[in-house]
């Protein structure tokens, strides 16, 4: 567990920081700054590089160092979690409209107070708290300017929606999870979750949201934004799966994007390989919107179909059935039903491609990598009594559905949070 002392850790941090700084200087790139953020080469989504790996390693070592110097009692207190959580001010900054009203050139607290008709001391407190997380910077007394992070908040509606979903749906649901677990121990039903305890409804989250259009809209917008966050781009699925090269456009490949939302993943796949035709399946309202948004150039190769994925798959004999970020929304009982519903449609050799997290096994990855997956495991528990799965969980799930599923690939594309779990139908 504890393999090295402070000096040794510090030396490793120093050496890695020097290498990173030198690598950037050699490439003529600026160092990261709070004002401008990271140079593109260090983005999670950029091509793997020595500099990018150095950044990753530094983040891990620094977290270890910091945790090592934190009092053990503080590690367990809610205050520590909130100390590290900018959400406690950023949520109000978004809700009160401060984020989107904040001008590109910066603003005084008094001007913002006048513009938004909000008490200036409250605005000051909120911005000053954000600034302790490098979200805004107090350039002179009572005058705040943007940092790279606050600029994202000002410029991206999707980011603001993501904050609202985090603060108003997700975190409250996690805080009610224990209550739900006590009331419904071992339940696999989605409506027995923390989100239900928080919202006082017996309907599973997505059915309940269907009757709350404003919240549903915020949720859908946040999900769309989520797909663009570093590490979640559909490009990882496109580039890592053997779709063939774009030149190889003569052999057609039919892909069914099950629970494919508005079709953004299918768009990337179709653009990646001209041989691919996609059928995007989702609920009727989502399908209508996806169809409306589809660029004309893709009309011939992407079609939409309303389909409930718990019912028998209507597209028979396709080459690939994709389940991207679908199964982690459901407990094993319901995943079993979703996969079983595919079987009547599968031809021998058909692929079922699951694009979801694979939670690392014990000590297989740095704890921060595992924590990211395990955080989402807790979120899925809180929302739908669902879960993230380890490689063994995926194997067990597929085998439990039908032994004719052969696991042919488990691949974690570098940079991506989502892995590719490919099963080939041997029936
Ligand atoms: C987390 S989203 C994933 C969307 C997309 N696959 C992606 O990777 O971004 C889950 C999707 O499942 C859809 N969904 C939920 N229940 C469904 C059902 N019973 N039948 C079909 N789609 C469903 C939702 O509407 C949503 O678009």
Automatic annotation (TrEMBL):
<dbReference type="Pfam" id="PF00891">
    <property type="entry name" value="Methyltransf_2"/>
</dbReference>
<dbReference type="InterPro" id="IPR036390">
    <property type="entry name" value="WH_DNA-bd_sf"/>
</dbReference>
<dbReference type="InterPro" id="IPR001077">
    <property type="entry name" value="COMT_C"/>
</dbReference>
<dbReference type="GO" id="GO:0008171">
    <property type="term" value="F:O-methyltransferase activity"/>
</dbReference>
<protein>
    <submittedName>
        <fullName>S-adenosyl-L-methionine-dependent methyltransferase</fullName>
    </submittedName>
</protein>
<feature type="domain" description="O-methyltransferase C-terminal">
    <location>
        <begin position="254"/>
        <end position="400"/>
    </location>
</feature>
<keyword id="KW-0808">Transferase</keyword>
<dbReference type="GO" id="GO:0032259">
    <property type="term" value="P:methylation"/>
</dbReference>
<dbReference type="InterPro" id="IPR036388">
    <property type="entry name" value="WH-like_DNA-bd_sf"/>
</dbReference>
<dbReference type="InterPro" id="IPR029063">
    <property type="entry name" value="SAM-dependent_MTases_sf"/>
</dbReference>
<dbReference type="InterPro" id="IPR016461">
    <property type="entry name" value="COMT-like"/>
</dbReference>
<keyword id="KW-0489">Methyltransferase</keyword>
<keyword id="KW-0949">S-adenosyl-L-methionine</keyword>
């Amino acid at each position: 567990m504890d393999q090295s002392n402070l000096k040794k850790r510090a030396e490793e941090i120093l050496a890695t920081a020097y290498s990173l700084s030198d690598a950037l200087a050699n490439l003529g790139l600026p160092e990261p700054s709070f004002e401008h953020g990271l140079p593109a080469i260090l983005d999670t989504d950029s091509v793997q590089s020595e500099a990018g790996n150095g950044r990753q390693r530094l983040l891990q070592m620094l977290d270890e160092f910091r945790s090592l110097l934190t009092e053990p009692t503080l590690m367990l207190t809610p205050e520590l979690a909130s100390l590290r959580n900018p959400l406690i001010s950023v949520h109000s900054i978004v809700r009160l409209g401060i984020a989107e009203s904040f001008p590109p050139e910066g603003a005084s607290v008094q001007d913002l107070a006048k513009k938004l008709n909000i008490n200036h001391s409250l605005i000051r407190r909120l911005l000053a708290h954000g600034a302790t997380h490098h979200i805004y910077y107090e350039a002179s007394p009572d005058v705040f300017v943007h940092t790279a992070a606050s600029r994202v908040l000002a410029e991206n509606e999707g980011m603001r929606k993501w904050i609202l979903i985090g603060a108003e749906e997700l975190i409250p649901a996690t805080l009610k999870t224990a209550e739900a677990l006590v009331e419904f121990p071992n339940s696999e039903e989605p409506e027995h979750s923390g989100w239900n305890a928080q919202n006082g409804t017996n309907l599973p989250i997505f059915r309940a949201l269907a009757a709350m259009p404003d919240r549903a809209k915020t949720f859908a917008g946040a999900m769309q934004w989520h797909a663009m966050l570093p590490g979640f781009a559909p490009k990882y699925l496109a580039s890592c799966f053997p779709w063939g090269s774009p030149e190889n456009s003569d052999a057609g490949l039919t892909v069914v994007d099950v629970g494919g939302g508005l079709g953004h993943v299918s768009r990337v796949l179709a653009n990646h390989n001209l041989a691919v035709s996609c059928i995007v399946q989702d609920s009727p309202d989502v399908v209508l919107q996806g169809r409306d948004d589809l660029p004309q150039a893709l009309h011939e190769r992407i079609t939409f179909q309303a389909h409930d994925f718990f019912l028998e798959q209507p597209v028979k004999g396709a080459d690939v059935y994709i389940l991207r970020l679908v199964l982690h929304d459901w407990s094993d009982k319901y995943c079993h039903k979703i996969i079983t519903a595919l079987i009547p449609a599968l031809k021998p050799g058909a692929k079922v491609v699951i694009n979801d997290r694979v939670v690392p096994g014990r000590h297989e990855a740095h704890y921060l990598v595992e924590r990211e997956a395990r955080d989402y495991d807790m979120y899925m528990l809180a929302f739908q009594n669902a879960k993230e799965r380890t490689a063994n969980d995926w194997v067990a799930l597929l085998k439990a559905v039908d032994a004719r599923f052969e696991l042919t690939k488990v691949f974690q594309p570098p940079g991506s949070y989502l892995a590719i779990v490919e099963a080939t139908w041997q029936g």
